[in-house]
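Quick log. Single chain, no ligands specified.
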Amino acid sequence: MELNVNLSLKAKQDIDLVERARKGDQLAYGELMGRYRDAIYFMLLKMVNSPVDAEDLTIEAFGKAFKNIEQYTPNFAFSTWLFKIATNNCIDFIRKKRASHVSLDQTVDGEESLAPSSLIQSDSLDPESYMINKQKIKHMRKIVSRLKPRYRQLVELRYFNEYSYEEIADELDIPIGTVKAQLFRARELLLNILKRSREKP
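-> predicted structure:
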């Protein structure tokens, strides 16, 4: 692997971390994320103007970078490569959102939202509306039950029990970064299940 001699000391340290990460060193992944997480987050926050979306997009950017880390070449800084991934991913997100991008916190082509709290909960609901909402929650729980246990538990805590990321991390005794990364994966899996269920005749 040919190294660009003009890289800064920090960029060269990043390359060492990338090499360790490629060999399966989880601490190296964590250190790379720690170095750039805040910078990526604030850049994305300016682009989407939503703390929740920026947080999710930050996790997604690191997920994509780490998944494709073998494609990184050290003739330019890792940070340059990472920021490009984050920016392109965010642009795609904005385009999809403008085209009614599906999100588990929104509706899915008329399907119900995953979070029960987003359903209309009011004492003034008539019996029919109450039953419809109850059925929607039941349906979503059935879909969530098809996930692997670790993902199911995370989704139930986040969306049904409305735990914060910090509360989930405390409850399961895992790092908050792991909570966010696994929730992102769980959302992907749920969207695939929803799409498949709609495609069935």
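The chain has a mean pLDDT of 76.
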